[in-house]
Every structure is written in C-alpha cells, then in structure tokens.
Amino acid sequence: MYFKKMVGKKCYLSPIRVDDFEKYTQWVNDMEVAAGMIFSASLITPAEEKEILERLSKTEFNFAIVDLAKDELIGNIGFVKIDYVNRVAELGLLIGNKEYWGKGYGVEAIQLLLDFGFNILNMHNIYLKVYAYNTPAIRCYQKAGLKEAGRLREAKQIAGAKYDEIYMDILAHEYKSIYIKDLVEKKKQKA
C-alpha cells in the first residue's frame, strides 16, 4: 500500500516501501536504467537493495513515485543531500519502470519534489547532477524548470568516451508551485 503525500495529475509521491526491494533490484541491475546513474558499475543483490531501501525509508525526504491511475510503483525521488544552513538540496531521481519513460512522469515527480522542497522545507536552491550523454534526462530536467549551472568536464568515461557531468539547478523564485499553494488557498477559503 502506498500513501499519497504529494499528488499530481499523473503520479504521486509516497513513503518508500522496503517490500519493493525485488523490483528495485531488477531496475538497478538493468544496464539501460543504470547507465545514467552512479551505480552503473555495481552489482546489487536483493539483500543489498533491501538495505539501501531501509536506509532511504528512514532518511528524510525520499519518496516512491507511484502511477496515480494504477497505484503502480515506477521509481523513486528524493533529496540525497540537504544543507539546511544555506538552504540548498541535491535531488536524485530514478524512473526504473521503462514503460513510463518519456511520458511526463519524471517531470511531474520532479515538480512535486521541488514544490515540497521550496514550499515546505524552504530551500533556496535545488540542484542535480547528470552525465552529458543522458539527453532524455536532461530534457526532462529542463521541462521541470532546471537550468544548466555548470559542468565538471570529462568527469565520466564510458564506452571509450569521456563525458561532462552537468550541474543543473533551480532557485525558489524561479519555481511556480503546482500543489502546495493550491492547498493553502483551499484552506484559506474554508476558514
């Protein structure tokens, strides 16, 4: 069972379920999924993935991404690093179910997490890192409102070629709320 913490039109964010470890193990060992991630060179067993999910489920602000219509797990999203003093957070995203790639679920999940980060956690800057060869992910991040902030040149070598690690970010004043502000307005109208 999943719980609707942040709800969009296509998907919602829920606390992570450790029981989903087998599905995650399939995803992280699928090279097509893993190629854009830091764990692409790792072999992850079900026991290791269960430990990872246990840690993530106890760490603040990591969510399962669930298809709203089917209640089907499609990936996860969260803040892998938060600097509360400077109000900066690093976003991490995995859409493991390839049937959902290129259909706007990643964009909406990012927007929901940005809404949570800016309007609940009061972050000022939210950023992520992506390898230059992962053009579908870059397009997804751009559609969600992130912009290129800089590059670590030739930071990744894969298949005999070197690629930049791109830093993308968005500032609080650049983000337009899609969920939280509507909830607050509804609460004010009911008063």
TrEMBL record:
InterPro entries tied to this protein: Acyl_CoA_acyltransferase, GNAT_dom
Signal peptide annotation: none
Enzyme class: transferase
Highest taxon, organism lineage: Bacteria
Keyword Acyltransferase: yes
Keyword Acyltransferase: yes
Protein name according to UniProt: Spermidine N(1)-acetyltransferase
All residue ranges annotated as the N-acetyltransferase domain in the record: 11-169
SUPFAM superfamilies cross-referenced by the UniProt entry: Acyl-CoA N-acyltransferases (Nat)
EC number annotated for this UniProt entry: 2.3.1.57
A Pfam family matched in the record: Acetyltransf_3
UniProt lineage: Bacteria, Bacillati, Bacillota, Clostridia, Peptostreptococcales
Keywords: Acyltransferase, Transferase
Gene name linked to the record: speG_1
Gene Ontology molecular functions: diamine N-acetyltransferase activity
